[in-house]
Structure formats: C-alpha cells, structure tokens
Large ribosomal subunit protein bL28
Amino acid sequence: MHGMTTYCQVTGAAPVFGKSVSHSHRRTSRRWSPNLQHKRYWVPSLGRTVRLTVSAKGIRTIDKRGIDAVVAEMLARGERL
C-alpha cells in the first residue's frame, strides 16, 4: 500500500503555510491544504489501473489532456505510480 501523499501527483500542489490574524491581530500559524482526492484511473498505455492522489485542479487537467498524456509526463518526472 502506498503512503498517503500530502501533495497532488499531477500538479505538484502542496500545503501552503501562513498566519491566521484575529480581530485583535494575534497571529497564529495555519495551513491551506490542496483539495486532494484519491482516484483510480485506467491507463491504456500501461495496461493497468493507477491510484492517484490528485487535487481538483489535477482532475480537471486529466479530463482535459487525457490520462495517458498526464501519466507519461509524471513518469518522465520520476513520480511513483
């Protein structure tokens, strides 16, 4: 089983850190997490399904460009599938 990633495997989006600023202007640390979803895709070029952790934007990228093109690019980058 794969370890859960906290970044999008398609776009590379990761949590962003910043501060919450209250009415009294006290600053406390917070983080903005990408909208990550676990999805399984059938990849014809690999002849198997792959389980990806993708952001909502990554899902749109796959819908637009096709899973084969996106997976080819991910493998070229050395992303584990």
Notes: Residues 67-77 form the longest helix (11 residues). The radius of gyration is 16 Å.
